[in-house]
Amino acid sequence: MSKLVIGGVSLSHLRDRDIQALFASAEALGVHEIDTAPAYGLSEEKIGKNLKNFEIKVNSKIFSPDVDSISRREVRRSVDNSLSLLRLESLHTLFLHSIREPLYRAEIHEELLKLKSEGKIVNLGYSGDGYDLRTLTSSYKFDAFQATLNVVDLGNLQFIRSNESMQSYIKRPLCNQVFKIKPKLEAVDFFYRLKRSESRDPQSYLARYKALFGNRLFARGGVDKVFGFIMSLHLNSKIIVGVSSVDHLAYLANLTSEFPTWSELEIAEHTDNWTRMANEETWKTLT
Fold first, then answer.
1. DSSP class of 261
2. What 3-state class would DSSP assign to 245?
3. Which is nearest to 51 in space by CA: 105, 87, 91?
4. Residue 121: pLDDT band by 50, 70, 90 thresholds?
5. What's this model's pTM, rounded to 2 decimal places?
6. pLDDT higher at 28 or 185
7. Residue 137 · residue 160 · CB < 8 Å
8. Which residue of 59, 153, 255, 276 has the fewest C-beta atoms within 10 A of its own C-beta?
């Protein structure tokens, strides 16, 4: 069984026949899980239209980053809408996406547990980083979590290693969250400062990756190095990567299945090398 999970954001732009071919290829490669969200455009609708006859589990989310409020009614409405679009009776895992700790009250968790008891959710998860991830998963019972981990952002590594009672999902393994055009990067920084009175400094994040891998940000020559790092850690985690075609899926599946087994010493040396580069004074980690 592959550790790879299909990131569903790209499905909004694919034709139905291409999505069906992608699902068939996924099953043949042992990939049986897809990650989507209401914020991913037409992704949920496209999945629901083309998932019939395929044994692929679907995970979705509630809301988008930096929401200002959350209520029991909004939670239920979001889940019901996702199930309707996906044409499913239940979600394999529902993730609360970047809900900040002060907004998450006991009544919200109770509503989610009620949805779980009704069979609309099989597993309940949290998707986030840093303080909110640590605090919420220690205060409430979750079955799974998503956390950022890649060669230039190791802030969640210890958390992932020490929380094996929950199913962990690695998001942004290829650092793709910051590969946007310059105005988009500036907008992200602006709203981050507006809400938290501090800078996320996305330009430094982009510059750091380019210094390590050059300008070919999505080139396969860089992807295998990044995937190699993730696989060398031998974490009990699934890896979410946006997939855009059958060929792309096959390439990524081969990276997860063909990575060589390393000795503990080789893993330690590899990890120490990336940790040193990620912690250089010129790099500011996002935690």
1. P
2. coil
3. 87
4. very high
5. 0.80
6. 28
7. no
8. 276
Token pair for 188: 């992200």
Distance from CA of residue 177 to its chain's centroid?
10
Q: How is residue 94 written in tokens?
A: 């529902």
pLDDT band at 29 (very low <50, low <70, confident <90, very high): very high
The one-character DSSP state at 87 is T
Q: Which two tokens stand for residue 110?
A: 């109770």
Give the model's pLDDT for residue 188: 47
Give the alpha-carbon dihedral of 178, 216, 204, 157, to 10 degrees. 70
Q: Give the list of residues 6+ apart from residue 177 with CB closer than 8 angstroms, or none.
A: 148
Tell whether the model's pLDDT for residue 104 goes beyond 70: yes
**C-alpha pair distances (Å), 55 with each of 25, 33, 164:** 12, 9, 26
Cα–Cα–Cα angle for 61, 3, 10, rounded to 5 degrees: 50
Q: What is the SS3 string spanning 229-261?
A: HHHHCCCCEEEEEECCCHHHHHHHHHHHHCCCC
Tokens of 205: 């994040």
